[in-house]
Amino acid sequence: MRYPSDVSDSEWEVIAHNFTCGNYGNRKKYSKRELVNAVFYIIKTGCQWRMLPKDFPPYSTVHSFYRRCRLKGIWEKIMNELVTACRIKAVRNADPSYSIIDSQSVKTTSAAEKKGIDGGKKNKGS
To answer: What's the whole-model pTM score?
Structure first.
């Protein structure tokens, strides 16, 4: 059965080389693409490992594959390759020179001990 989270043939061509060496799953019984599709299904749906549909490999096999790839840095390597490819396609430098952090989402200081005067209220701020 096909799921919306499954990788297409063209998407698989882009990332397949990351799974050609090393032991990332049971090579005899399940293809790496099947295992990647199962991992993407888990990520996309947020379901529990044990609730993985039966048409995927067993959840323990998928989890083991995911964990080994995570420990070897395969997922991070794929993300970096995809970001680089997208930046090049958008005619941008492959490596960003800076980044912007939204000041509304980052707490920069702890609570102030001193209270100042709010000039608009003409009294001490609380």
So the answer is: 0.68
